[in-house]
Write a structure and sequence with these properties.
378 residues, Hydantoin permease, 15 helices
Length: 378
């Protein structure tokens, strides 16, 4: 496992931008990238209500990420097991169980999304897209943190560029409808606060999943700044996507794959395939982030027992077993039902086992002055 020592030879990018890009990588996933999550949690509140909910979620992500990063650095905890042992003591097992439920659910969603994309774009059997995604996740997670960070960097470049093009093409193709959607919309409708809180709550677990990339931080200031930046970096592509969706509000809320619907309205040759490849990259980096966190958790235990860290074969085996066990749950349940029902359950679960302890016990530990060490008189 090639992991640099905490803070050693860290670049500005690694200290301030990489944590936010990693958080975006974990959160973006299948529902965000295809627009299904946006349709579920933001579209019902209308154009202005949806934007308000997204801004609320962004603030929550920034605050929780800043506290998480600062506490992790203070404790020297760079995997979720070590972090929750420091935060909850023996109660850390509660997060482990919640995280396993989270991994099963999101990988099922990713499998469903990859299968739907392969079928819609290339006419493949749905299982083919799911298998290709699983193989790709195993390949990247097998080689440790360095290759995972490289994926987060270059996949993020692709994702931001494609979403920028997406908005440009949307404005040129049906920009008038977008303007009408916002102009004619009433003030925030529906329970936009609940939508923002729910979306932020089940996704903010990403702040703990990406702890391995925090080894580049050199100070508590780095941790807080990186956390504050992480919220906007994570939400920016979603806001661009949501603005384009408002051209067809409220009907767009019923689309299983809003991205595919909008791409058909644009009718830009070749861009449909590029966008679907971007979604696959988003699914890949999210899946890699989830599996890599488990590999780092296991490796941390192995190293604590005086053994060498996990090698390539062991990492690939762990990833393969997890993926085989849960990705194809989606074939029986479906993308829409998984997002609508499972994610709300996760929101409450993570509020209880992560956010509440972090903003109470965690903040108290951050603000508590360091104990004074008494020097021993020889």
């Amino acid at each position: 496992m090639n992991v640099s020592k905490p803070g050693s030879k860290s670049s500005w990018f690694q200290r301030f931008l990489l944590p936010g890009l990693a958080l975006k990588a974990v959160i973006i996933g299948g529902g965000y990238a295809t627009g299904r999550e946006l349709a579920e949690y933001f579209v019902p509140s209308g154009p202005w209500g949806g934007l308000s909910a997204m801004l609320l979620a962004t603030v929550i992500w920034s605050v929780v990420a800043a506290v998480t990063f600062a506490l992790a650095r203070k404790m020297g905890a760079y995997d979720y097991r070590a972090f929750f042992q420091g935060l909850l003591g023996p109660g850390w097992v509660a997060f482990e169980l919640a995280y396993l439920i989270f991994v099963i659910l999101i990988l099922a969603v990713f499998g469903a999304a990859a299968g739907a994309i392969g079928a819609a774009t290339f006419g493949w059997p749905e299982l083919a897209g799911s298998i290709l995604l699983a193989i790709s996740i195993v390949a990247f997670t097998a080689f440790g943190t360095d290759i995972v960070e490289t994926l987060f960097k270059y996949a993020s470049m692709l994702i931001y560029a494609v979403y920028a093009l997406f908005l440009i093409f949307a404005l040129t193709s049906f920009g008038g409808l977008i303007a009408e959607g916002f102009t004619n919309a009433p003030s925030p409708s529906g329970n936009w606060v609940a939508g923002g809180l729910t979306y932020a709550s089940y996704n903010i677990v990403g702040a703990v999943i990406i702890l391995p990339v925090l080894r580049h931080l050199t100070s508590q200031r780095d941790a807080v700044v990186a956390g504050i930046i992480a919220g906007p970096l994570t939400m920016l592509p979603a806001i661009l996507f949501f603005v384009a969706m408002m051209a067809f509000y409220p009907a767009i809320g019923a689309e299983t794959l809003p991205s595919d619907f909008l791409l058909r309205q644009m009718a830009v040759p070749g861009f449909h395939i590029l966008f679907q490849l971007m979604i696959f990259a988003a699914l890949l980096e999210s899946g890699v982030g989830a599996i890599h966190a488990i590999n780092e958790r296991v490796s941390g235990v192995v190293e604590a027992r005086g053994r060498p860290p996990l090698g390539t074969g062991a990492r690939a085996a762990i990833g393969g077993v997890i993926l085989i066990g849960c990705m194809f749950v989606a074939a029986r349940i479906g993308l829409v039902d998984l997002i609508a029902s499972g994610y709300r359950f996760l929101a409450w679960l993570f509020l209880f086992v992560f956010v509440a302890p972090l903003l109470t016990i965690g903040v108290w530990r951050l603000l508590r002055p360091a104990p004074v060490r008494m020097e021993t008189v020889p």
